[in-house]
Amino acid sequence: MPMQRALLKAYLWVLLIITFLPNCHAIDSWAQPSGQRRTAIRSQRDMLANVTIDEIPIVGVDLRHVLFSDNFTSSSNLNTNQTNTIYMNNLSDLLTAGVQGLVLDIEPNHGFWVVTNTTLLLSTFLDTLESFLLSTNDNLSADIIMLFLRPPVNLTLNSTVYHTHPQLNLTYILDQHLGSSRIYSPSILAADRAMGDAWDAFGESKTDGWPTLGTFLYTRKKRVLITDLSSKSNSTIDSPYIFPNTITHYSSGNMTSDCPNTLSALSYMSTVSFQFLEAVFNEDDISEYVSCGVSPIISNTYNVNSLSNIKTLLDKTVVWSWGEDEPTISNTKITIVKDTLEALNCAQLSFSSGTDSMTWQVANCYDNKRGLCRYKDHKYVWKLTKDDDNTYFSFDGRGDSKCPDDYVFAIPRTPLEEKAVLLYFRQQNITDIDAWIDLNSISVSNCWVTGGPYASCPYQKVVSRRNFVTMLLPVVICSFAILCIVLYLSILRTPIHDNRKNWRRIVNKISKAEFEGVPS
Ligand SMILES: *[C@@H]1O[C@H](CO)[C@@H](O)[C@H](O)[C@H]1NC(C)=O
Ligand SMILES: *[C@@H]1O[C@H](CO)[C@@H](O)[C@H](O)[C@H]1NC(C)=O
Ligand SMILES: *[C@@H]1O[C@H](CO)[C@@H](O)[C@H](O)[C@H]1NC(C)=O
Ligand SMILES: *[C@@H]1O[C@H](CO)[C@@H](O)[C@H](O)[C@H]1NC(C)=O
Ligand SMILES: *[C@@H]1O[C@H](CO)[C@@H](O)[C@H](O)[C@H]1NC(C)=O
Ligand SMILES: *[C@@H]1O[C@H](CO)[C@@H](O)[C@H](O)[C@H]1NC(C)=O
Ligand SMILES: *[C@@H]1O[C@H](CO)[C@@H](O)[C@H](O)[C@H]1NC(C)=O
Ligand SMILES: *[C@@H]1O[C@H](CO)[C@@H](O)[C@H](O)[C@H]1NC(C)=O
Ligand SMILES: *[C@@H]1O[C@H](CO)[C@@H](O)[C@H](O)[C@H]1NC(C)=O
Ligand SMILES: *[C@@H]1O[C@H](CO)[C@@H](O)[C@H](O)[C@H]1NC(C)=O
Ligand SMILES: *[C@@H]1O[C@H](CO)[C@@H](O)[C@H](O)[C@H]1NC(C)=O
Ligand SMILES: *[C@@H]1O[C@H](CO)[C@@H](O)[C@H](O)[C@H]1NC(C)=O
């Protein structure tokens, strides 16, 4: 009995300690972003609302290497259904972690499309993707997913085969398992272009342009763009939902162009739409590529057991803008610290020439700083104001900022725009600086918006509730665990009381021994 009691006590203590560990780690999978990281990802997306979809930075994976690399069906005693379930759980993890580009090899097999070299049906894959899209289908978390299909190169399927094998009809499969309403198709692009709702890199409405991310997500209400990577000219998998390879600039191995380091190189780079690089990356070079305007497609080799190691690459790239552990979550609005006002609701661009790094950071709106301005609509022409004595509120009042004529208070929205700021700083011999950028959470804490200090949070109600819930959920669960422990303890009150007595007796004994002198 005493043995059991001791074990029980030890168990309860372990429970208690685990409960008090920060954030209750056991609840999260490696892929689940923290509330803070979700805020960072969302604010990045929101800043991209007016950027065309061919220019937004995304992080992708080549699933052949990242997920389906080892043939573990044959080496384990799981049946194929079980392994496919594991694959699909891990795919959900990748999407949850912020991966937005999926490269998938597919092949026809006995009248079905399957993922190459596996028994996994394409339809099962699409079902998994669809449930992710459904679970993120609100203004807070909806974002674009780019799906690159790679069928065998010289595959020919003529339309008669569809009659005998309807499951080979990709249009049908996509309809049934992804939902045509979520797919941005070539015909919708054609309509957008005809209506003047497609733009080139310089904000001109063009017949070969692309819609902005905002139009794509909120006006057209689309989530997915599908490309056939296999063919240069005519798609082998002819479907009205699928774009040919020619829309992208997709390269493998080494980057074909240099990182832009002049204004004209930057301008040229932004005329190259959908720039992807499929390669084996390391922690250092991947962020370098992102800062040069290239979307990385990670083709490092992982498997279902080692997949979580991809986190080191994703950590550096999914959030490219904010610094580490930013944006710091602020719950209070204005506080008074040593007789000065403090409101941690404004963002600064922090540049350090030593590391050549530039990040967004949360700062006190009442600090005095210089501000960053952009020349009208020219996204690569920047200027830093001379005066460094402006609080956020005095820098940008209602409709009249301290920026020079023809310049507007702004924020670098893409890695290339940030590169332009970097070039400007270098040219001006600016070494280390913190400057105001047009990004703040003044109207609602943790809802980062652009448009000056009076901009309002577009999802005020949802965001405060959501943040609240996600921030409190672990706490609630922990408290519940504590409550259970307390209840348990009170049921077992007597034995524990006994134990306390025991302790007292032991303590008494020891102190007595000390008092009387330890016998040698
Ligand atoms: C997008 O453009 C509109 C109109 O110019 C502007 O009101 C809005 O603030 C811009 N949004 C972002 C995120 O830049
Ligand atoms: C994987 O294992 C299956 C069954 O053993 C086999 O048919 C298939 O060819 C293997 N694929 C590869 C890529 O080794
Ligand atoms: C796999 O799942 C399918 C349908 O869900 C079922 O018909 C089949 O029997 C399962 N196979 C195994 C080996 O469990
Ligand atoms: C499929 O398996 C074959 C044989 O192992 C291999 O050569 C090929 O690269 C694999 N294809 C994919 C897409 O994994
Ligand atoms: C989502 O955003 C769109 C466009 O900004 C808006 O029309 C819509 O009402 C929003 N939906 C919700 C639920 O807030
Ligand atoms: C595909 O077909 C072209 C010509 O039809 C041929 O030159 C090429 O070698 C083929 N590629 C493969 C991988 O079979
Ligand atoms: C399609 O393929 C079948 C056999 O697979 C062939 O008999 C038929 O002539 C082909 N049709 C066309 C239009 O190529
Ligand atoms: C493929 O499926 C789509 C949608 O179900 C259908 O409209 C189309 O006619 C099919 N194509 C062929 C060649 O059967
Ligand atoms: C591509 O398709 C177009 C029309 O659909 C056709 O005229 C052309 O010959 C095709 N090219 C190839 C290489 O098949
Ligand atoms: C990439 O560049 C390195 C060195 O610059 C070279 O050794 C390697 O062969 C290149 N790889 C490819 C795929 O071009
Ligand atoms: C992949 O999924 C399986 C089954 O859900 C899970 O046990 C495993 O931990 C996952 N792998 C990673 C790296 O998350
Ligand atoms: C920056 O420094 C270089 C060399 O020290 C000098 O030639 C140049 O005029 C400086 N530029 C500015 C804007 O001060």
Automatic annotation (TrEMBL):
Give one Pfam family, short name only.
TIM-barrel_MTC6
Which stretches are transmembrane?
Answer: 468-491
Q: How does it sit in the membrane?
A: Single-pass type I membrane protein
The cross-references to InterPro entries, in alphabetical order and at most eight, read: PLC-like_Pdiesterase_TIM-brl (IPR017946), Telomere_Capping_Maintenance (IPR051008), TIM-barrel_MTC6 (IPR057530)
> Which BP terms does GO give this entry?
cellular response to hydrostatic pressure; lipid metabolic process
**Keyword annotations from UniProtKB, A to Z:** Glycoprotein, Membrane, Signal, Transmembrane, Transmembrane helix
Give start and end of each MTC6 partial TIM-barrel domain: 32-320
The function of this protein is: May be involved in telomere capping.
Q: Tell me which family the UniProt entry assigns to this protein.
A: Belongs to the MTC6 family.
- In Swiss-Prot or TrEMBL terms, this protein is called Maintenance of telomere capping protein 6
Which species does this protein come from?
Naumovozyma castellii
User: What's the name of its gene?
Assistant: NCAS0D01540
